[in-house]
Amino acid sequence: MAAAIGIGACGDSDDTPTSGSASGSGTGSSSGAGGEGDAHDEHGAHGSGDKAAFPAADADTTVDVTMRDFAFSGIPATVMGEKVLFEVSNEGPSEHEFVVFKQGGDDAVSGIEPFAEGKTENLAVELAPGSYTVRCLIQLGDQTHAELGMQTDFTVG
Ligand SMILES: [Cu+2]
Question: How many domains does the chain have?
Answer without folding.
Answer: 1
